[in-house]
Design goal:
This protein is an alpha/beta fold. The protein folds into 2 domains: 294 residues, Alkaline Phosphatase, subunit A (3-Layer(aba) Sandwich); 108 residues, Gyrase A, domain 2 (2-Layer Sandwich).
């Protein structure tokens, strides 16, 4: 690719986020167009924020592209060779590694992207002991905060979600021409929906062709492909750069169509992901369960849909890279908790142990339990009998709590330096780009340092 190599900039030092490799386990308390080759407001203050929103910057749409599970290291290694369109957008705009919310699982983090709020506020959680049912459960789409799509609709803007599932029925819906949801079977089909909307052609929405009244103000397009490969084959899979080429080709179709319909000078592109990926080959569950038993407590590792036995003192729920511990009876007493912490922090297989105070400091939801345990690579919270030595990938810990962010186009300063951005900053920034107030419960900020100053 012509031009200089794009360096993928890490988050500013001291901004929190990924745990340092090799750290001992411890209890925590704590503007210009895209390159031609790349063819906290609360509910109480929402009304005031809406009155103060700057109209008309820019007059064109925002295209939000979300590729699930893109570890920043993938772009460090493959951006120029496999994703020249994305590289061109980055070169002409601003980019950084942004901080995710805890834990770094898809739906909670995508909910933070969509609402601008941390899980303690939006309350989307995953792989937890559900207090409503008493059972372990996996991911859901439930949120207690207004989404980006809902905020824009409330303010008269239009939206198209091409597979960006987190706003399905939360500001977009099948068949609604002003807030349309459509779900392609592939990234390429989601791109087809975006291209059709830009051309003014009918968009397939659940089998029904829907003609939009105009080009939507927000166009969001999603792909799960990189995440799927990373889970099944690990972060070193040769299929990751191969699929990045395919995703980038689809992005190129979107950029080319924006140019063809004469909107390139008015459009802003926002590229995001939701978490990184870490490989694993070994289980640490025997060591963790052994340490809990050695501290004098009964323990049970729950899978989704299961209910713990009444006498269990330490209940564990987990996704491969992190587990939640719920303490009962003697384990919940101050001396029992201290004894359990000493036992867990002595394990070399654990990279970190977060107390409830530490989880609160991260903005984690109360459903995350009393402790959160993070595995040190190459270990994971998986059944030892399910492993065969083949590397697979997982995420949930602070190590994977980093994701790429890029902004480019009409309202973005070329090569601006982003100052410790986070996923919670995406929704407020998109709303500002569209001259709208942020979602009602947003805690993030507008990334003003990346935007062209108002005249």
């Amino acid at each position: 690719m012509a031009g200089r190599r794009v360096a993928f900039t890490s988050r500013a030092a001291g901004s929190g986020g990924a745990a340092r490799s090799g750290a001992p386990a411890s209890a925590s308390s704590a503007a210009g167009e895209p390159d031609a080759t790349g063819a906290g407001a609360s509910a109480a203050t929402a009304a005031a924020a809406e009155r103060s929103a700057e109209p008309g910057r820019p007059s064109g749409p925002v295209v939000l592209v979300d590729w699930d599970g893109v570890d920043p290291a993938y772009l460090e290694a493959h951006l120029d060779g496999c994703a020249p369109v994305l590289a061109g957008l980055m070169r002409s705009g601003a980019h950084a590694v942004m901080e995710c919310t805890y834990k770094s699982v898809s739906n909670p983090n995508r909910a933070s992207t969509a609402t601008g709020a941390r899980p303690a506020v939006h309350r989307n959680t995953a792989y937890v002991l559900d207090p409503a049912t008493g059972k372990a459960r996996g991911q859901t789409r439930a949120m207690r905060a207004e989404t980006l799509a809902e905020a824009l609709r409330r303010q008269g803007r239009t939206v198209l979600s091409a597979g960006w599932y987190i706003v399905e029925d939360r500001g977009t819906a099948y068949g609604d021409p002003e807030a349309l949801y459509t779900q392609g079977r592939t990234w390429e089909e989601n791109v087809d929906s975006v291209v059709s909307a830009l051309r003014g052609d009918p968009v397939d929405s659940g089998g029904t062709p829907v003609r939009l009244p105009r080009v939507p103000d927000l166009i969001a397009a999603y792909s799960a492909d990189i995440d799927t490969i990373g889970h099944r084959e690990g972060p070193r899979s040769p299929r990751i750069p191969e699929r990045l080429r395919g995703l980038d080709a689809g992005l190129g179709r979107i950029v080319a169509e924006v140019r063809r319909v004469g909107l390139l000078g008015r459009t802003t592109f926002v590229f995001v992901s939701d978490h990184g990926m870490t490989g694993y080959t070994r289980s640490l569950e025997p060591e963790v369960l052994g340490a809990i038993a050695g501290a004098g407590f009964t323990a049970e590792r729950l899978y989704s849909g299961r209910t713990p036995a009444p006498a269990t003192e330490v209940v564990l729920t987990a996704t491969p890279r992190a587990a939640n511990a719920y303490l009962r009876g003697p384990a919940a007493a101050p001396d029992g908790r201290a004894r359990l912490l000493r036992a867990l922090c002595s394990l070399d297989e654990l990279e970190a142990v977060h107390t409830r105070e530490g989880l609160d400091a991260l903005g984690a939801a109360p459903e995350e339990g009393d402790l959160a345990l993070e595995a040190r690579p190459p270990y994971a919270f998986v059944d030892p009998d399910a492993l065969d030595g083949t590397e697979r990938g997982g995420h949930a810990s602070l190590r994977e709590g980093r994701a790429p962010l890029a902004l480019s186009g009409a309202a973005v300063r070329a090569r601006a330096r982003l100052l410790a951005p986070g996923v919670i900053d995406v929704a407020p920034t998109v709303c500002r780009l569209l001259g709208a107030a942020p979602p009602a419960h947003a805690q993030g900020r507008v990334l003003e340092e990346a935007l062209v100053p108002r005249r």
